[in-house]
Amino acid sequence: MTSSLTELCVDANDPLVLAGFWAGLLGRETDADGVVILPREDPELAIRFLPGPVRRTGPNQIHLHLTSATPEQQQSTVDRALALGGRHLDVGQKPEEGHVVLADPEGNELCVIEAGNSFLADTAFLGELACDGTRAVGLFWSRALDWPLVWDQDEETAIQSPLGGAKIAWGGPPVRPRSGRNVMHFHVSPPSPDEQEAEVERLVSLGATRLDGARGDACGIALADPDGNEFCVQTPGHGPRRLRR
């Protein structure tokens, strides 16, 4: 029995605007309410934008990496992001580094990775969820999702679905001190509707802790991973909905 990773959730001051930016950038459709970017096929993740005031005091714990097949595609992605309302972001990157760092309309960081990046060669356009986190949390999520480790060196870890798709990677220590609730968090689904509580207990046995509904009871049961990052075990029936027409 293992959870399925179904959604990346993003807190937003204006969910409709932010969903529109990311749907346009990723070339994907939204649900009927316009706030969930729907997967086209396995193993793509849905991305759900949730309303709520966002108070950022530092970089996000998770940011997204988009891949490029050619230098021209990289530039096209950058141009599209800027046209949709994104902006360039200076995080101290060096001129010789090939990736381009941007921010979405609410300041969430993203990177457009250069063509020829070998680590992301076996992924998709959304190639990586790059996370600030310890090796222990990478091992936790590998066991929680039954996704194999595809990188485990120098305290850095990465996992990937057996079906392929985006990798989730953790940069290892030192981990930035937490400064409140993360802007982004995961939703996972139990194997069947009647196994939600059993799945919660399994995740707790792997190192998660209960948060007693600290993050929106409507989404499910709130937990934290070993680094203290919130996630939810979804209530049956909660998940991506129909396409927006």
Sheet with most strands: strand arrangement: 5-6-7-4-8-11-10-9
Low-confidence stretches: 241-245
Instruction: Tell how many strands the DSSP assignment holds.
Output: 15
Beta percentage is 25-35%
The DSSP helix count reads 4
Summarize the main sheet. Answer: 8 strands, mixed
Pattern of helices and strands: EHEEEHEEEEHEEEEHEEE
If you compute it from the alpha carbons, what radius of gyration comes out, rounded to the nearest whole angstrom?
Answer: 17 Å
Shape: globular
Which class do the helix and strand fractions yield? alpha+beta
Mean pLDDT: 91
- Distance between the amino and carboxyl termini: 36 Å
Percent of residues in helices comes to: 10-25%
Please explain how this structure is put together.
The radius of gyration is 17 Å and the shape is globular. Strand 9 and strand 10 (156-161) form a beta hairpin. The relative contact order is 0.19. The protein has helices spanning 15-26, 71-83, 135-145, 196-206; strands at residues 4-12, 36-37, 46-51, 62-66, 87-88, 100-103, 109-112, 126-131, 149-153, 156-161, 164-170, 184-189, 209-210, 220-224, 230-234. The protein has 245 residues and is of the alpha+beta class. It contains four helices and 15 strands. Strands 5-6-7-4-8-11-10-9 form an eight-stranded mixed sheet, with helices on one face. A seven-stranded mixed sheet has the order 2-3-1-12-15-14-13.
